Here is the input.
Amino acid sequence: MLKLFYAPNACSLAPHIALEEAGADYEAILVDTKAGEQREPAYLSVNPKGRVPALATEHGILTEVPVLLGFIARSFPKADLAPADMFAFFEMQSFNTYLASTIHITYAHLFRPERYADSDAAKAEMGAKVAGNLGTQFQLVEDRFADGREWVHGGQYTVSDPYLYVFTRWLDREGAGGIARFPKLAAHRARMQARPAVQKALEQEGLAPV
Ligand SMILES: N[C@@H](CCC(=O)N[C@@H](CS)C(=O)NCC(=O)O)C(=O)O
Here is the structure.
C-alpha cells in the first residue's frame, strides 16, 4: 500500500488530494514538522532531505511534489489526472515545476527566513518583498484563466489543480498579500473546495476550507 508522509497544510496536501482523486489505497502518515519530527532519524531514514512529502511505493521512496504528482497520475490512469498526450504531459510538468521552484521558494522567504538570512533586518527586508514577488508570479497563473477555463490546463482537471490550490490557500497567510487581487484564482480555489476529494483530504489533515 502507498504511504504518504505529510504535514497539515504543507505542500504535501497536493499529493494527498491527488491520492483521494485517484481513489488510491493509501495510508497518510503525519510528520509533526512543528515539533521538528522531519529532522529526527526515524524520518530522515525515509527522506534524508528532512522535508515532506515523501511517498513510499512498492518500488521505493519518492520525494519532490511534482514527481509524486506525476507518479500518482501515471499509476492511476483511469482517474485521468494528467493529459494522455506526451507534450501536454510535459507542459503540465513545466507548470508544476514552476510552482515548486519559484512560487514555493518565494513563500519560503516569508515562512523560513532563517534559511536565507541571519539578522532581523535582513529577514524583514526579504519578507517585505514576498507579497510583490508573489503578485508577479501568480499573475502569470491568473492570466492562464483569461480564456474562461475551469482548470489549470483547460477542461481537464489534472494534478496541477491541487498543487495550485495549496499555494492559493497560503496567499491568506500574513505577509503573502491575499487572494483578492486574483479573482480567477479565487474562483479556482472555490471550485477546488467543492470537490469531494479535496474535502476528504482537508478533513483528514484537520483543515477547514478557506
Ligand atoms: N522541493 C520540495 C520541498 C518540500 C518542502 O519544503 N516541504 C516543506 C513543507 S511545504 C517542509 O517539509 N518543511 C519542513 C522544513 O523545512 O523543515 C518538494 O517540492 O517536495
Remarks:
- Residues 86-111 form the longest helix (26 residues).
- The pocket of glutathione is lined by residues 7, 10-11, 33, 38, 50-53, 63-65, 100, 112 (CB under 6 Å).
- The chain has eight helices and four strands.
